[in-house]
Design a protein that fits this description.
By secondary structure, the protein is mainly alpha-helical. Helices cover 80% and strands 0% of the residues.
Length: 98
């Protein structure tokens, strides 16, 4: 069993990687024309939120206002993004590359 202090750094690094991926995904979707622009912006917003969670955590820990607000924005953003993207896949409006 790991202590909180032992697991927080890998979790923050994973969040940074996912945040950067979401931002990159959103930028690529904005450049391309196969996804709605709103979905692209939502990806960028959720990615920025994930990165800001880490900044807030470094500034004042898990109870810092930036951590809390960014976490809420990220949670809502990723939830809507995933549902929206899933609906596009199910409707056949986006083809998977696999």
């Amino acid at each position: 069993m790991l202590e909180f202090e032992q697991e927080i750094h890998p979790v923050l690094i994973a969040n940074a990687v996912i945040g950067i991926w979401l931002i990159t995904n959103g930028i690529m979707a904005r450049v391309g024309s196969n996804l709605p622009q709103g979905l692209a912006w939502l990806s960028i917003l959720a990615g920025i939120g994930l990165v800001l969670i880490i900044v807030g955590f470094w500034i004042g820990g898990q109870e810092h206002l930036l951590t809390t607000v960014s976490g809420l924005i990220t949670f809502i953003g990723i939830l809507i993004w995933a549902i929206w993207l899933g609906k596009l896949f199910l409707a056949g409006k986006v083809a998977s590359s696999g």
